[in-house]
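#onboarding

Welcome to the new folks! Below is a worked example of what a typical request in this channel looks like: someone posts a single protein sequence, and someone else replies with the predicted structure as tokens. Don't worry about understanding the tokens yet, we'll cover that in week two.

Example request:
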Amino acid sequence: MELQRNEFKHAIASGKLQIGLWNSLCSNIVTEIVAYSGFDWLLLDTEHSPNELPAVMSQLQSVQRGTATPIVRPAWNDTVLIKRILDIGAQSILVPFVQNAEEAKRAVAATRYPPEGVRGITTSGRAARYGRIKDYVKNANAEICVLVQAETREALDNLEAIANVDGVDGIFVGPADLSASFGQIGNPQHPEVQKAIEDVAKRLKKIGKPAGILAPVEEEARRYIEWGYTFVALGSDLGLLAKGADTLAAKFKK
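Example response:
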């Protein structure tokens, strides 16, 4: 059995636009439904969702036949959390709140087997197809994708240093936290915040590092893509359900 190719990792490295969807409902059924929608990637969140490891594993299983590469966001830049996520089969992770190059190096090290990193070794887990992938521990590093979130002024000050860390495949901007860092909490559309978001895309383009962002409003998403963002989340499963339900109820409440 061969090691699975990480299509998302190779796509963003080549500059190919990847559209995604945020998954916060912690449901393998919901994840399976949207996996067939045509998205290139799905974010399985454990930072701001009550999503635990057994549920994440079932969500990873549910997307296998869909179009999208699953990306898992651990609750924190923690070696143990990242190890467990990788062992259940995730090949791509999004690490929140990375402020500097040292924190980025720690995130990468957690995903790499020695001597490149500190990932604990097992050859019998789901990632190795329960021991069926020959030389998994020797080859796994090459297909792991590490994305880190830049969501504060400090992170933007250190943007190039973070992006140039070996093993960082892309930088993801969190507009909500970034706006709070700029003193504009709840207002990511503030001109100063938008200027910073545009500047991130320009700076990363200069060094050839893909940029990503969450943009649930179509107009914003198209603007960010025009600015040069390569992987863009167009909304969330939670948002789609809430808006759809509200719209349907409102039609008859009138």
